[in-house]
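subagent[fold] <- orchestrator: predict structure for attached chain, return tokens only, no commentary.
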Amino acid sequence: MIIQHFTDNDLYKFSVMHAIQKRYPWSYVKYAFTNRGKTDFPEGFAERMREEVAAMANLKLTQEEKRFIEKRCYFFDPVFIDFLEGYRYDPAEVQIVQTDGDLSVVIEGYWYRTVLWEVPLLAIISELYFKMMGATPQDFVGKAIQKGVALKGLEADYSEFGTRRRFSFDVQDKVVGALQESSGDFFKGTSNVYLAMKYNTTPIGTMPHEWFMYHGAIFGYRSANIKGLEAWVAVYDGSLGIALTDTYTTDSFFSSFSQKQAKLFDGVRHDSGDPLLFADKAIGFYEKTRIDPTSKTLVFSDSLNLQTVKQIKDHVAGRIHDTYGIGTFFSNDVGVKALNIVIKLTDVKAHKNDPKYLKAVKLSDVEGKHTGDEKEIDLSIRTLGLE
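subagent[fold] -> orchestrator:
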């Protein structure tokens, strides 16, 4: 069984789950798997994956996990934590089909429930693929120690974000331990809640693209960022205060990011496009709104390695606080090519009984990386004046 712990999942899935329950408990959605790297999956993959998904029905929050969440996730109310204790995965929400080497995965159900599937399913797909291909990880602990020492030398605050595309749970587990040991205080935590508990570090994460994608589909693209941030503040009252900027492009985000929200949120996160250009835009925005940039934080989380971290640090030095969320570079640097896979929100309803779904799409600061229905993407681009 690949997923053996209920909290072997990223914090942001639990944080958005909490927000969904508070704001949109009736919402009904679909997610779909996208094989960006065109990986050819081996015969029998879907059957093995169904077995893994079925086994997840037996997962439940342990008392140790509950106590950790109560202690470290102070922003969750006791009602939500009690709900997690009673939550069970429902494999009927996941449909898996394989045609030759092509894999289709669709998730459908109430949003507050189905939101937890994305990360563990991606982790299953990745680990199962490498198992079936007979791959063996090479020298990953030694590499992690070298990276941790190098990041400490750069004085870079960073966290491990590698759950979704890890080679295996065992690799991610050992890498997190090695990073913590080799980087000292510069290692700030991990997105994986179970590993944060195991290593007594901070679970890291705030909001995902799907939060804004839902608001864009329901309320319109011009209102998506504003509505999404207002709803987030209504739930978290200033906690989890790093805003994601690129769901409908960073330029669109900053055009609607009010001075009130800019002062309230601790900072913003970069997840696509040129990180140096993003840094200049963010710092310029804060200066224009008469906010001291050095009081804010930029989180960088797009395909980072030691070279890109150094480039960014050199560029922003003394201008703003910078921190880094590093994923596949840590959890799948084992001598194989990591899978390029995602699961994204595709369809939403404000209520299960609504007559039809609305399409949910995601833009990007990288041309050609937009996600979702092509007609709806075109509509969102024209609505936001991004043509």
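orchestrator: received. Logging for downstream: The chain has 17 helices and eleven strands. The first helix runs from residue 11 to 23.
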